[in-house]
Amino acid sequence: MNAYTELIDKYLNNELSAEERKNFEEQLKNNLALKNEFDLQTQVIKGAQRMGLKNEVRRSFKKTKLTKTILKTVIAATIAVAVIATGYFVKKQLDKNDNEIRYELNEEGNKSWSEADKMLPSQTIRINPLRDTVIETKGGILFAIEAGTFLNKFGEAEKNPVDIEIKEALTALDIMKAGLSTTSNGQLLETGGMFYLNAREGNENLDIDQEKPIQASVPYNGKRNDMMLFDGKREKDGSINWVNPIQTVRQLTTTDIKQLNFYPPGYLDSLQKWGYNIRDKKFTDSLYYSFICGNMDIALPVAPAASDSIIEEKMRPTKAMKKGYSVEPGVMLSADGKSLFKQNCAVCHSMCDQHLTGPGMKGIADRVPPGRWLFDYIKNNEKLIRKGDVYANKILKENGGPAMPVFEGTLSSNDLNAIVDYIVKGDCYKTDDCEEINPSRIKAIWDKKFDNTFLATTEFEQRLQVIFKTCDDRILNLYVQNLDKNLYVLDSIAADMCSGEQKQAFRDFYKERKGGVRIDSKHMRSLQKYASDKKRIYEKAAFDAMENLMAEENKQNIAAFSERNTHALSESIRQSKVFEEELEMNLDEAYRQLGKLRNPAPPPVSYVSAPVSSAGWKNVDAYVIESTTNRTTLDYTDPQTGKKAMIQYKTATVNVTKQNEYDKVVAYLLPDKLSSFQLMKNKGVRFEENLNELLHYDLVVIGFKGNKLFYSETKTISAQSYTSVLKESTEQEVENRLNTSHAVSAKTDLLKDYKFQVFDQKENIRQKKIAEREKFKMKVYPIVFPCAPQLFWSEGHIIDDSAH
Amino acid sequence: MTDAEILQLIQEEKLRPVIKKLYTYYPVVKKHIIGNSGSRQEAEDIFQDSLIVLFTKIRSGNFELSSGLHTYLFGVARLLWLEELRKKNKKISSETIAYNQLAETGIEADIREDSKVKKAQAAIEQLGSKCKQILELFYFKKVSMKEIANDLGFSSEKVAKNQKYRCIEKAKEYLKTN
Question: Is A542 an interface residue toward B (CB < 8 Å)?
Answer without folding.
Answer: no
